[in-house]
Amino acid sequence: MKEPLIRVVKKAELGSREIFILRLEAIFLALVAGGLFILLIGQNPFVIYKTIITGALRSEMAIQATVKIAIPLLIASLGVTLAFKMRFWNIGAEGQIIMGGIFASYFALFHAGWNHWLLVIVMFLAGALGGGLWGLIPAWFKTKYDTNETLFTLMLNYIALNVIVFLREGPWRDPGSQGYAKIARFDKNAALDKVLGIQFGWVIALALLVLVWIYLNRSKQGYEIGVVGESQETARYAGMNVKKVVLRTMFLSGAVCGIGGMVQACGSDVTLTTAVAGGVGFTAIIVAWLAQLNPPAIFIVTILFSILEKGSSVVQSSFGLSSDCADVLQGIILFFILGCELFIRYKFVFRGKGGAGV
Amino acid sequence: MTEQYAIECRQITKVFGSVIANDKINLTVKYGEIMALLGENGSGKTTLMNMLSGIYHPDSGSILVGGKEVSINSPVDSRNLGIGMIHQHFKLVDVFSAMENIVLGTGGKRLGKKALKEKIEQLSHSFGLEIEPEKKIYDMSVSEKQTVEILKVLYRGAQILILDEPTAVLTPQETDKLFAILRKMREQGCAIIIITHKLHEVLSISDRVTILRKGQSIDTVMTKDCNEKQLTELMVGRPVSLNIERPEIAEKNTILKVVDLTVEKSDGTVALDDISFEIKTGEILGVAGVAGSGQKELCETLTGLMPAKKGAILYHKENVLGKTPSEIIRLGISMSFVPEDRLGMGLVASMGMVDNMLLKSYTEAKGPFVEREPARELAEKLIDKLGIVTPGVDTPVRLMSGGNVQKVLLGREIESNPQVLITAYPVRGLDINSSYMIYDLLNEQKKKGVAVVYIGEDLDVLLELSDRIMVLCHGKVTGVVDAKTVTKEQIGLMMTGAGKEERV
After folding, report:
1. How far is A282 from A157, CA to CA, in rounded Å?
2. Contacts with B325 from chain A: Cβ below 8 Å
3. What is the pLDDT of residues A147-191, one digit of tens each?
4. pTM for the structure as a whole
5. Are the beta carbons of B326 and A221 separated by less than 8 Å?
6. Domain B250-332+420-504 fold
7. What was the ipTM of the complex prediction?
8. What CATH fold (topology level) applies to the domain B5-236?
9. Minimal Cα distance from A11: which residue of B?
10. Would you call A258 exposed, middle or buried from its count of C-beta atoms within 10 A (0-12, 13-18, 19+)?
């Protein structure tokens, strides 16, 4: 019998400084691996990397576009974080964003004549309500019948998406549009104002960042979320009403995502399309976990993601690379950063090397 | 000629992260010998045995089986070497019969049902085991299940048996039976390693004892040459007194009365069957019983976590049944329940001491925010008072050692000034020193006039610490006895439901 070639061995708990260094190393390696890929397709990696950064930040317009990408991503990441803190696997941010967009769009389309600020406030509340209710459905079934929330929230995404399709083809179809069906552009009165040249949504996103941060770390309800997430038994023992906490938290998680949908529809798109969420709900999951569910870190990760996305689109147009190349690059970076989590907790030991060293 | 060892471990080292679980351990066992592996929890007993059974691989050192150096990479390797392990938690398929469980996983050609039954009966006869091969596991008692586990490894031709705390789930009578079987196996030439931390068992069954402490093999002694005191000193590393105090309190009043309480589990089976008893201030009521006799349900019903089907719980003559857990907490009934995995209930593993102090009191703060300052002060006070060792009040409690975690839990409950303190397995997994600290804490509460309920596993401790002992068997109270006069054997009989019921 031979000793196996490689064994996985658990590491000591690392300090936060060591973990930080390990993550930096991962990012560095990701850039190296990404560079090799760029070399392979016949480009200079340094030029490409430089273009990604400058492409995202080179001009006021570029920065505005980058921020526009960041707004819904930041909001949705904060939304899913609320649920993830409770270990409730809300994969349904996409659907909650869409529902928020739909609810808000109703007022934008049919009550465009209201006083502007009243309309904005109503749209904001409607967006939160739409997303919140869409989040409440799987939570209710979870508490009542112990259904699997991962599948449930995921499936609701597709239902939400097709609700838009239905509205577009039927009741909300723009009679003025020629050819394929679409929903009409909102009245100017229903569009969000601009602050510093970018839609108002970024102010909302930053406000939510602070609110969610305080909510999770300082409030009683945030404390309850942490306890329920760790152990429902412990929560019950401490006298908490676990069902109530689950329902409330999922409503809030969905509501925050729904606000993201409202901001995207009324701020950036000024209409409702099937692309209102556009995968943001899924990217948000990655952002939330990369940031270890920590709101300030979520802010940083969101900015980095947005720069990568905006920069990649510039690379695409200026070097004639297909959008798939940018996706491969993103994939490589994610692979390394997520993969380094394994090395935070484990190390590999080769045959004959022992491994007892501490 | 050098002696042929069944198993010889040389300089075995195994590291988990920053914890050295095994540090250059040497251990030998001969054929026809029972070797006891003695050590406190966390001393590395189970890690060492898991390496022999192929679950872990040693980082360095070598293992010799029958004089030949081997590398055990999987449980299959271990089985092929004739090593059989009987785990603390049985690994049996409930809906299968004993016979089916025994042959499960053995390769090769299956014997016919009749031939198989004969073979098993013959095998069990030769070792003095009693078994009904066709009986389903779910119909079996704990001791019967253990017999099936033993037969399982014997059927596979194991010559080396490892038993991990086999007596934890047995009554004293069942333990005697198990020991008789083990002695018979020794006569037949098996090598047996028994892991335990119960000293009297070591003395009654083993030929040699190897003592582990903090991952190191401290000493190996012949059992006949030593006594309980010496073994304890080797195990703990310093002399300890083994007497538990039992202060007498003159004034006792009934504070909580349980009347005709019947509780059903969620699957409809009866967990507590029409039980009645009283809890008095200034005394410790011990609760004895085989694991799973209704202890957990008793705790959960008293604290409002579980609904009752019938009966009443009178606290200061007021029925508290049907109140929510938070209402009961406010009445001053406090529970520190230490489940098997210790952190499952009562503490939040990933939170620090400060946040854990808040667990039951966070609602008291006014407004929507939690107040961490008083909790921080309380945490610091407990560190001082109970000598809790932790890098800081915000260090997650899962990183603290078992004894310190227990102190955090019990300390918080005591600081809430309860009238009734329910503790379940508070010394589970603790070393001797920490255990005595917990007993002292409980006695202190008793002197203050608190009614203490102590649900325990170790009968010796229950007999010394409690004023009265209530015995549970299959959810029924089979006796409430005076701890000063009752014997261990009498309690053992009540635990099986065989003793006659008596009340004091």
Report:
1. 10
2. 236-239
3. 999 999 999 999 999 999 999 988 888 888 777 888 888 888 888
4. 0.76
5. no
6. Rossmann fold (3.40.50)
7. 0.78
8. Rossmann fold (3.40.50)
9. B17
10. buried
